[in-house]
Protein: Ubiquitin-like protein YukD
Organism: Arthrobacter bambusae
Amino acid sequence: MASTHIDISIELNARQLDLRVPTAVTLGRLRELVRQVLADHNVAMPPGWHLELRGKAIALGEFDVIADFPVGNGDVFAVVHPLGAGPGGRRRA
C-alpha cells in the first residue's frame, strides 16, 4: 500500500522547514499551506514566490498532484522568487 503522506523540507533563506504533507496535495495547495504556516510565524513571503523541487529534473505545475511524480521522503522544495534578478531572473530565497 502506498503511503498517503511524505516528509519534505521547504528551503527558505538558507534554512529548512520540515513538513509532513499528504501525497494527494497539488503544488498550488502546498504553496498555500506553506504560506499559511509561515504567516502564523510572522514570516511574510516575497511577491511572486513559488516552489521548485531541488535535485530532480522535473517541474511541477500549480495543479499537479505530488503523488503523480517521483517526489518522496526527504525531497526539498526551494522557495524561489523574482526579486534580486540573477541568472534567469530568479533567486532562491
Notes: The domain at 5-92 is CATH 3.10.20.90 (Ubiquitin-like (UB roll)).
